[in-house]
Amino acid sequence: MEVPCVRVPVAEGETTRQRLADADLVDPDFDIVVEDDTLYVPVTDPDAVDGFDVVTHDAPERRTPTTPADLLGFEPTYERLGDIVIVDEDDPERARDIADAILESDVRAKTVVNRASKVKGETRVRDWDVLAGSETETVHREYGHEFALDITQVYFSPRLATERHRVVEQVEAGEHAFDMFAGVGPYAIPMADAAANVVATDINDAAIDYLRENARRNGVSDRVTAHAGDVRELADDYENWANRLVMNLPHSAGEFLDTAVRLAADDCTIHYYDIQHESEKYGPGERAIRDAAEPDYEVSVETRHTVRSYAPHEYNVCLDVRLTRA
Q1: Which residue in 256, 251, 326 sits closest to 296, CA to CA?
Q2: How many whole angstroms separate alpha carbon 297 and alpha carbon 92?
Q3: Selection from 228, 231, 230, 179 nearest residue 200 by Cα
Q4: Beta partners for residue 53, in sequence order
Q5: Digitized pLDDT (tens) for each residue of the chain, 326 residues in all
Q6: Domain extents for the chain?
Q7: What is 68-135's CATH number, 3.30.565.10, 3.30.300.110, 3.40.120.10, 3.30.70.330?
């Protein structure tokens, strides 16, 4: 459609667009057009434009993306993991309706699944009902890193991206970081990218296979050593090695604290994840760490952090604890 537009060189485009936006003159109903080295910014009132060349130019009407809520009449809850969309519905018919709406909408998805079980077993996987598509392997992108995974073989929660980033931002170049329950590497890979030397273990062989692939994918294979198996069986090989320990196994990390203390160097930070009742979110974890580490180490709790609500009156929490050899 022919509409009034401000015409400027592309090199001046963003500055011009911002000035027009500040004056509330950019027309939101039409797309900005680039042709060769020229930018055309649709404007609502050409007479109010001052200091720019205003012309009439063909600009397409801006298309508003169709959302699942537009099609359903309600806002569904779902999360994306790469190009897999995950819903969590007890009603199979409602889950199917949501899946159909996701596919008809502008949400990018090749597969839609519904959670069919809780996380279970020592490999921490769950069952899925595949509602649309068939591919359960994907590549998830998070804070500049890529993670290949298959949701039927490994555990991965996109909801923890912010928490993982919080921990990784504390990593210093050259330190020894040990991820005791590493999964496909969402802590280990970014820590290695921050120039730490990383050892990662997981009881799930498939997770370690993906972790090694992800280390190659992100260019950090030279700084990641991955072991499939129980971390307790590796303690002799890495005794007194770690400056940083990630213990992201909230329901049972306490069972591994003796191993964590063996792995800890003279100065070590532990990121200890726990699930506790709201009445005492941090006390049980702190007492367990002190029981395992004292008197060999001085124990200092540096951060008491609530990650998210886990269940009614229960929270997923993290203690950042510094151990200093006494």
Answers
A1: 326
A2: 52
A3: 179
A4: 7
A5: 899 999 999 999 989 999 999 888 999 889 999 998 999 999 999 999 998 999 999 999 988 889 999 999 999 999 999 999 999 999 999 999 999 999 999 898 999 999 999 888 888 899 999 999 989 999 999 999 999 999 999 999 999 999 999 999 999 999 999 999 999 999 999 999 999 999 999 999 999 999 999 999 999 999 999 999 999 999 999 999 999 999 999 999 999 999 999 999 999 999 999 999 999 999 999 999 999 999 999 999 999 999 999 999 999 999 999 999 99
A6: 2-58, 68-135, 157-325
A7: 3.30.300.110
Pairing of strands 314-325, 264-277: antiparallel
DSSP class of 65: P
Alpha-carbon Rg for the chain in angstroms: 25
For the chain, give the number of residues.
326
The domain defined by 157-325 carries CATH number 3.40.720.10: no
What's the CATH class of domain 2-58?
A: alpha beta
CA-closest candidate to residue 274, choices 321, 323, 204, 242: 321
What lies within 8 Å, CB to CB, of 40 at 6+ separation is 5, 6, 7, 32, 33, 34, 55, 57, 59
Task: Return d(Cα 148, Cα 216) in angstroms, integer.
Answer: 11
Answer whether 319's CB lies under 8 Å from 300's CB: no
First vs last C-alpha separation in the chain? 75
- E strand segments, 133-279: 137-142, 145-150, 176-179, 197-202, 224-228, 242-247, 264-277
- Decide whether 68-135 matches 157-325 in CATH topology: no
